[in-house]
Structures are given as C-alpha cells and as structure tokens.
Protein 1
Amino acid sequence: MNYISIQDIESLKKWVKQAIKIKKKPLKNKKLGKNKTLGMLFFNSSLRTRLSTQKAALNLGMNVMVMNFTSEGWTLEFEDGAIMNSGASEHIKEAAAVISQYCDIIAIRAFAGLVDKEKDNAEIVLNGFLKHATVPIVNMESATGHPLQSLADAITMAEHKTKHKPKVVLSWAPHPKALPQAVANSFVEMMQLQDAEFVIAHPEGYELNPEITKNSTIEYDQNKAFENADFIYTKNWSNYKEYGKITNSDSNWTVTADKMKLTNNAKFMHCLPVRRNVIVSDEVLDSENSIVIEQANNRTYAAQLVLQKILKFCATTSNGKFPSTGKKK
Ligand code: CP
C-alpha cells in the first residue's frame, strides 16, 4: 500500500470523517507504530510537511529518521544502465534497497525541476523509489502532486462548510518565482471527488494539465469567479504550456479585501508558505475568514490517517513484514 496520489483514496468522504476522528483523539493509536520507523527523504525544503508528518508519526508511536538528500545524501542516478562517470555517486537501485532495510515506510519530497515537462511528468524520483524500495511509499509532494496537502484541504473544507454544495474557487495569483503545479493539480483532483460547484480561475494561457483538469470549469475573469464563492483557495503555479515559465505577473490577480467582498463571505485558503501582499493582501490573510493556520494544522491529521492506514494494512500481512511496492505509474 502506497499513498502517491488522490487516486489512492477509495472514499474521500470516509477518509475525511476518519481524519476528523483522529483529530479529536490523536494519541488513540499510540501503540500502532511501536518499533516501526518512518524515513523522511527531502530533495526540497519544507516546513509544514516535515513537521506535520513527523508529528503524525510520533502520535502513532513511530520512530522517525529525516534526511535532506540535497545537502546530506549522495547524488542519485535514476537511469537504468547509466554509465555513472559524472555527477551521481549512487544509483537509486542501491539507495532505495538500503533505505528499505532501515525504514518501514519511506516518505519522499521531490519537486518538479520545471525545465523538462516530460521528465517531471515521469516522476523519476518517486517512481524510482516505488520501483526499487521494498516498503510502502508516501508522497510528500512530488513533481506533479501533493496529495497530503489536498487531503488536509478536504478536511479543512469539511470543517468549515456551511452548505452541502459550496462554491469553491481555485484562483491563480502572481508570484516572483516559478512554482510547480503540484498543489493545484492535487487540489483539482480532490475537488473532482467533492460535491461542490468548482471553478478554476487563472489568466489565459495558465491552463493546468488538461489530463488533470478534465471538464472542470475554467474562468479567466477572477472577479466573476469570486461571485458568491464560499471558499477561495489561492495558489500560484508557473505556466504549464510554456513549461515552467512566468508569462504573467499581473498584480490585479492578488487576492484583496475588495475581491473577497464579491464572495459569499468566503473562507480564504492557501497551502503556505505564502508571499504577503503578492499572493494575498495582509488584510485578507489576517482576517477572521482566513483559515490557513487551521489548514496547516490539518496536515498532521491527513498524514496520520495515511500512516495509520499503511500501518494497519501492513499489520494484516501474514509474515508481519511490509509488502514490496512496485512501480505505480
Ligand atoms: N504546504 C506545504 O507543503 O508546506 P511546506 O512546503 O512548508 O512543507
């Protein structure tokens, strides 16, 4: 059992309910992870994912080992048959097999490089571990998805929604650095499992991968999208067509108090970290309607639910060992 994408959730409604239950009694399963080790491998920076996933593992009684691969690990080679006479010192085959001996679950963060679309879509780091590790893998944000974030987003919306079918707007906003599409992709996939009126708002040309957005409603007029919205989820992503480029930095897309007035007293969401007065004004971020801190808090319960499910699944295997994973996509 792995947690790689939103598609690994068999019932979002059920999972959200279970996560809210965990939130009420986070130490209830303190013995479940006894003598089990979570290995957290970071190829990119993190605050929330690192601390919330670690806290989730500790709540389950697990041991945790963290490694920042870019500064502490050997540079890895991912290509089969590579002649390793340049930068990379270790092949994923050995690295994944060795780490699997020390850890019962491996969690990985490896962002998109935003240079080569094909390479990013191939998810070489995540798939390298899926192929060569012999323990379950958890995605802590890969090139194309951030499913722990969107599970936390679903929990947060369930806690704050006041009607059965809310209007939810995913709105692009400007950013000085080119950012991956991963958070937006997983949010879209998660929203496709929700009973909601869902709108993606962005400038023309900023379409996400159409294989992910499918038939989601797209609106190029942000003001129109905001009308009567119950949730505004703001996120920057770099251009997908002109891959990894910043082709628009229009500050008219910054979320302001005036724009929030168009909504149905909407809650403001962002995965964080957020650039104040670029993505969103201070006034909105500091308002009562901003639920970003609770959203970050729910990262713990999203991660705890995922780890708990993997631990329970593995406890049911006959030899008591965690099953090998195998390449997923
Ligand atoms: N939202 C999120 O993943 O935060 P970090 O990058 O700080 O982990």
Protein 2
Amino acid sequence: MPNFTFEQSGKIVFGRGSLNELGRLTASFGSRVLLVTGRSFAVNSGFLAKILENFREVGLDVTVFQEVEPNPSLRTVERGVHVLRGKSVDVVVGFGGGSALDAAKAIAALIVLGGSPLDHLYPRSVDRALPIVAVPTTTGTGSEVTRYSVLTNPLEKKKVVMQGPALVPKVAILDPDVTDLMPGRLVASTGFDALSHALEAFISRRASPLSDLFALEAARIIFNNLPSAMRGSKEARELMLYASMLAGVAINQAGSTMVHGLGYYLTVHHDLHHGVANSLLLPYSLAYYAEKGGRVSELAEKLGFRSWFELVAAVCKLADDVGIPDSIASIGVSAGELDAMVEEAFSYKRNLENGPVMPTPEEVRNIYAMAFEGRRGFLKSLTH
Ligand code: NAP
Ligand code: FE
C-alpha cells in the first residue's frame, strides 16, 4: 500500500430541491453576500429571481455580479471585486458552470488578499479567502469541490490557475433541477471534462488508493449514462451531476495531466469548450501513457475492459455517440499551427509533469498530429 494524504473539506448537499437550502446555508457565514454568476443562464432560467427571493426570506443583503463569461478572464475577476466599491461582504456564492464558480472563488480570495490575480497564481497557494458557497449548473468541472480556480490571461492568451485550500467551497449544493435545462451539447461537452478528470486522476503520478475510488466510480457512471443524459434523461443527468463531483474530488487529490495541458491551446486560440478540447486529446494521450507503462491497463481492467485498447476504443465510441467532432482539423486547427501548439503545451508543465511520464516535444507533436487526423484513422491504426 503506498503512502498518501487525502484532504477534502466542505459540506456537500445533494438532491432535487436542495437549492431551496441556499439562503439558510449561506446565512451561517454572515448576512452580506456577493452572488457571482454568468450573463444569461441564471437570469433567463428564472433561477436568479428564485435565489434572490430565497436570500430575502432569510434576511441576506445581496450584491449581484452577473458578468462572468465562459473561460473567465483575470479582468472579470478584478471587476467582480470592484463591483463592491469597498463595501464589506461575509461570503461569496457562485451559481453557474465552472466559469462562474471559478470566478467566484478567485473573487473570494482577492477580497481578502488584495492585489491582482497575477500576484496569487500557481505555484503560490491561496490559504485565505472569504467562505465560498458553490452551486454548479453544469455536469463537468467539479469546481464545487476543488481547490482550483482556472482563469484566462487575455494578454498572454494563456490559461492560468489560482489554487489552494481556501478555494475549496465550504458548501456545495448539487441540485439536479438546475441541469434540466442544459442543452444536450453542453451535457456532452462538460461530461467529457468529467470523464477526463476521472481517467487522468487515475493515471496521475499523485494518484492514491482513495483518489482511485472516486475516479473509478465517476468513470463507470459516465460511461453508462452520458449518452442518455445528453438525450435528456433526468435520471442520467442526476447521475452525471454526482459523477462530475466525484471526478472533481479525484482531481482535487491527484491533479490532471497532459490531456488538460494540451487542450488549453484549443480553448484559448480556437474558443473551443474545455470539455471538447479534452475529448479531442483523450484517446491519443491514453494510448501514449499506456505504451509508456502508465496505469492505463489497470484502469481498463478495473472498468471492466479486457485491455487498454478496449478502453481507448470505448472512449472513442462514447465521443462518437455524443456528437464530439472527429478531429482537431474539423474544428478549424491548421497543420501550420503544430509547432506553436507544441511550444505552448510546454508552458503548461504543471499538467504535463503530473502524468506518469513527461513527454518529449516530439511525442507531444505526434499526439497533436494524431488528434489532427482524427479518431477514425487512429482506431484502425491500433487494430492493424
Ligand atoms: P461554463 O463556461 O461555465 O458555461 C458554458 C456555458 O453554459 C455558459 O454560456 C453558461 O451560460 C451556460 N450554462 C451554464 N449552466 C447552464 C445550464 N444549466 N443550462 C444551460 N446553459 C448553462 O462551462 P463549464 O464547462 O461548466 O466550465 C468551464 C470552465 O471551468 C473552464 O474555464 C475550465 O477551465 C474550468 N474548469 C475548472 C475546474 C476546477 O477545478 N476549478 C476543472 C475543470 C474545468 P452563462 O454564461 O449565461 O452562465
Ligand atoms: Fe477540466
């Protein structure tokens, strides 16, 4: 048995109708609240009005910041702090996808720490922040249980991270009612982020027996439920919300790998959803790690496959089933970008170094080249 440490704080409240508990649970941290959310979903769905009514009932004083864009920028986080104009708050509530939650987490830290997000990026650790309450409305990032806040530096066109124990939400409210309105495409995209988290956490060099439990259970649920969740099954979406939280716990312990590191380029330069970016790199990264002796065969076996090849084929089939594009060429990447992509991948060393082996630039180029060709040809090359 290997040595390990497992640290996971925060209350998790799961169930239909649990959003009604938001006011009461938030009030336990104080009466002045900053509510952070995205631009359209919260207001258009009617959930924002419902939340504000719930806050009024328990006597909370609320400031709303509803300007978080997908892949939130450092500037958005700064604007979220300035919206308070010096007014004190006791607790920050995030309602939305990973973007709104991550912005809420960074704002909660900056209110306490001061300065700009640039002063507090990885490898620094965020040890102080206001209490955070998180309500995820997508089924992918697991941000409601992680110590990460993933932001975008728009000047350098890079994904950057604030991380630390104070960024783990004190309360996560997982109410499947909020996922009923998700378009099928968003279920597919975010579901592949959760699947990446689960599979990457298992093969990560920081994996432990306990993080494996979370990773394997998440992966099983996702393989069995993502297609029906995408097509609208409420029960399957409920399970996806649960699985994305489990996978969040897994990466909170073990971290992500090359899949995330290589995918960031596609999000930052081609505006591709984070989960789709991961899905387009996952099969080739798994095959690479398998050939280099990572724990991919063990992962496959524990998930009920006969070989790592069967696992990779199942990932490809799942991507086909839920309508993920076949290749990075089909989303508009040109072959002329390959050199820049390889160079940029190595600026995400924190992810690359966390895999079972550190790839060379040639190996990364090869993985991007396979992703460029697409899944169809790749599967044939594996069988022959
Ligand atoms: P997202 O960027 O939060 O949301 C994508 C879009 O979906 C937004 O336009 C949003 O609308 C909309 N939306 C949210 N909930 C919805 C619902 N229930 N029904 C209909 N539309 C809805 O997407 P995400 O995949 O959840 O988050 C991605 C971000 O999380 C990336 O920045 C990624 O890097 C980060 N991430 C963080 C972690 C972590 O541990 N912190 C882990 C993985 C990924 P509005 O804009 O109107 O709100
Ligand atoms: Fe992710």
Protein 3
Amino acid sequence: MILRVEHIGIAIKEMDSANKLFESLLGISNYKMEEVVSENVKTSFFKTGDTKIELLEATSDNSPISKFIEKKGQGIHHIAFETDNIVAEMQRLKDLGFELLSDQPKKGADNKLICFLHPKSTNGVLVELCQEIK
Ligand code: ZN
C-alpha cells in the first residue's frame, strides 16, 4: 500500500550553493548528507513537516543525475512514495503494466529500500517507491 509522499528529489548541479539556497528557502538546516556510491550521487535531506526534500548531486559523469541535468537542467527529479511493503507494491504495479527500473528493491539513501518506475509509464514523472529498513 502507498502511504504518503515521503520525499521530493531535486537534481542540482552543485551541493554547497544548493544547500545554502534551500537553507534560506526553508529556514532550516539539512539533517543529513549521504553519498550513494552505487548510484553515483551525493544527497542532502531537509525535513519539511511529514515530507522531505532530497537534493541530488552527481558524483560522476555517468550518474543518472548528470544525464538528467544535461537533458532537462536542474529541477524536480522524482517523487518518492512510501510503502509498507515495497516487494508487494512492485508486484502490484508490474501486474498493472507499469515499467519498473529494477526487479529487486535496491538500497537507497536515508536507510531505505527503493525502486524506480520508468517515467514513460507514469506520464513523464519519475516515481520512486521506498520503504524504511527496520
Ligand atoms: Zn529519492
């Protein structure tokens, strides 16, 4: 079951200036920075009530974030929905014809199992499913 919007991912070119910008914008500091080596990204998280903002900076040229910025520029990259059972949710969406970008959940940032849906099956929106690792 989908529970809520867990976070919104934003692709940014340069972390220091983006962190400062979002600190001013939101009036709070980020609570965590984390590198996800397998995805070639560095992340920074801000808590905004029940939802988070995740800034994403590429750590190499073959990062999905560098490709995204090359094509579309900086901006909203994905919407992440929290689920209470990511494996069941992946199967449910697969059965409905959505295209998943991985067969198994992967380890993401912020202590989560994650899986992405291909934007061509979701009206152009990159959707992430996530579930907290307990
Ligand atoms: Zn995310």
